[in-house]
Every structure is written in structure tokens, then in C-alpha cells.
Amino acid sequence: MTDTDINTRQARLEATIADVLRLAEQKGASQAEASASAGSGLSVTVRKQTVETLEYHRDQGLSVTVYLGKRKGSASTTDLQPVSVQETVAKACSIARYGAEDEAAGLAEPELMATEFPDLALYHPWSLETDQAIVLATTCEAAALEQDERINNSEGATVSSYAGCSVYGNSHGFLAGYPDSQHSLSCAVLAAEGSDMQRDSEYTVARDPGDLEGAEKIGREAARRTLGRLGARKLDTRMAPVIYPAQLARGLFGHAIGALSGGALYRQASFLLDCLDQPVFAQHVTLSEHPFLPKGLGSTAFDNEGVATQERNLVEGGVLKAYVLASYYARKLGLATTANAGGIHNLQVSDTGVTYADLVQEMDTGFIITELMGQGVNTVTGDYSRGASGFWVEKGEIAFPVHEVTVAGNLRDIYKGIVAIATDLDVRGGIRSGSLLIDEMTVAGN
Prior knowledge:
This protein is α+β, with helices and mostly antiparallel strands. It folds into two domains: 3-228, PmbA/TldD fold; 238-444, no CATH class. The chain is 25% helix and 36% strand. It has nine helices and 17 strands. It has helices spanning 3-26, 82-98, 130-145, 215-228, 246-259, 262-266, 327-332, 356-363, 411-416; strands at residues 31-47, 50-68, 71-77, 151-170, 175-193, 196-206, 238-244, 287-289, 312-316, 319-320, 347-349, 366-373, 383-394, 397-410, 418-421, 431-432, 436-444. Strands 3-2-1-4-5-6 form a six-stranded antiparallel sheet. The chain has a five-stranded mixed barrel with strand order 7-12-13-14-17. α1 crosses α2 (82-98) and α3 runs parallel beside α4 (215-228). The longest helix has 24 residues, at 3-26. The model has no long low-confidence stretch (mean pLDDT 96).
């Protein structure tokens, strides 16, 4: 997609949003907001060196929300023709007339709207032809299959590319949008040794295709991870230190974000309820939000309500300093929005200046997790229990692979038990963390 194409597409979306807001006002809406997006992408999967799936897609959509006083109505469509847009606005207004009044309903406050829109380098289209995508996926999978004769099967290698634009506007006079892109390459293979069969994978994702890891590197890493799991054993149940590698550590902090969200707090369904200005993490942990990182997967100048984002600390020195709120639940709680309608924006976890190897040496004897399974996390109580596999470490060296165990504890204890955080920052998501060493968790096996 050329710059001219994306600019034209964004201008059309902005015109559509302007029409929506005008029509909503004509139909008596006291407030209105709308978001629209359009984009296209290519996805190719190669399995056992043969093209398995080839998809090209174009998508677009429009969501409209109107407020008649304190009554709210919403409707959406994928047809952006004028007649369909008019019908969508009419449906939203009709729904609002029959809705119940809610004192917290309405747009975010007008003085909070973003007024500055820095270039965050979110748009990097990839002129990837189908043949090129097939070669990349084939090369990636071949690099994995060639590593060892024990790798005898594959779930395939997938190359995906997407580019598009999004626009948001509301009746405060806010109307803004931006083009963006996201590209990825992944590979998953299986290995067998006797009756033992294992699977693992690796992936890379970035807004700029030039920032993706090489296809052969991804394939080799998928193979290395898979081969390392052969010969896995069970463990007897014990208490032990645990390392969460960077790619899994973000999930631990994701549970905290869920517990700090407005909905969980308002429903009193959070294990972090009433913890503001209290220590909830180890004292060397700081969680900071950075919405303006160039090329960041969570970067944006405004949230889904047009509220200006800002850099801030959610946790400072282990002490909880802020919540994660959009305007609706902020009002319910008697607080102000934190510009998190739509989620968190590049939450970064501080490190303690050590390497991953340092973590393993400091742990001495314990469990390194390489995969987590199941959803056994209770955000009301903080109880945490998930299936896991990984490696048992003795005297700072990997002793043998482990499978079919459960790691368990309470998130309050887990967060305060963070001994160290490595510098191996994983930036493949909206939460960016290095590997973690937890002082003690239950590792349940035989």
C-alpha cells in the first residue's frame, strides 16, 4: 500500500466519521462518538515445505455510539456506503431511546482530548509479494527441520503482513487517526525420540519488517526449543525458586493490569482492591507506561476515547501509584480516566541490571518455566495455578527438562517475591519485561 493510498483511505474514514457526528446531532443526540478502520493483509503458511494456506484479506468497519442525555446506544457496520452509515446512526439512536439512564455514561471530558499528535513511526508497509512470503516461510521451516533428524514433523511456518489506518472522532470536535502496520513470522515443529514427542515454537513481530528476526534464526530457535524438551520428566511436589523467561513474564504483569482495571475495581473483583499507595511488588519493581515509543506495539497519542496519553508510573519502588481506567468506570469510582480506554500503552518493567545467566546462577537450584498452560488465575483472590513445563536447574546448570507439573501460589506473594529482573527485555507486545526470578513457588508434580 503506497503513502498516497493510505492517505486517501484515512481521509475517507475521517469524512465518514464527520458524517456520522453530523447525522447523530441531526437526530437529537446530545453526544456522539465513532471509530472506523480499514486495512489489508497477506498471510502464508507453509507446512512440510508445501503451501498449506494462502490468505489475502481486506477489512473495514465502523462503530457508532450516541448518547441521548444519559442513555447510550451503539451500532456497527462493515459497509461504509452512505446509506449504510445513515442506517447505522439511526439504529444507534433507536437503541439509545430504549436504554436505561446511567449517570456515568458519556464521552470523556473535552479538556482531556489530545491536541498533539507526534509521529510515532507506526506505519511501515511491506511490499511483500506472495512468492516472497512463500520463500520466507519455506526457509524458516526448512531451517528448523534441518537441525536434527529427531525433528520429524511440523505445524508450519507462517508469514503475516498487515497495514491499515484507524480514525476516531467525537462531538467534542475531536477527529484524528493514524496509519499503522504489523508484521510477523512464526514457526512450530515437533520432535520425537522413542515414545517421547515434544513441540515448541518461536516467533518475531514488529511494525517495521526490517525489525523482524531472520527467517532462519526463527526456525533454528524453534528447533532448539523443541529438542531441548525431549526426555522431559515429572517432579515430586516441592517448594522452589522459579524463573519466568521474558516471553512469559509479561503474562504475570498482565494479571496485575487486569486487577487494576476499572471494571474489576468497581465490581470489587480485584485482589488489588484498596491497595493504592501500598507496596504490592518487591521494592525494586517499577512499572511505567510509555505511549510514545517509536514503533512500539502499544504506542498511541490518544486512547479509544480521544484522551491524550501520557508517560506515567503505575508502580514506583514496589508501591502502587495508579489504576488503569477509561472514563466510564473512572466516573463510577469517583476518579479521572487514565487514558487507558482500549488497554495499556507499552507498560515497561524495570530491570535490576542482571543478565538471564545471572538469574540462573542466583537461583542455583530451581525451576525454569518454558511453557504455561491453562487459565487458573483468580483475579478476585490472586490465587495462581497453571500447568507448566520447563527445566530443572541444579547448582546453576540445567539438569533435565520437566513436564506435567503445576506452578502455584498467590499473586500477592509472587509479586513481592520477585528477587531480580534481567535486562533481556522482550518487546513483542504491549507489556515489555525481562526475565524474572521468583523466590519461591509451589511446583506440584507427583
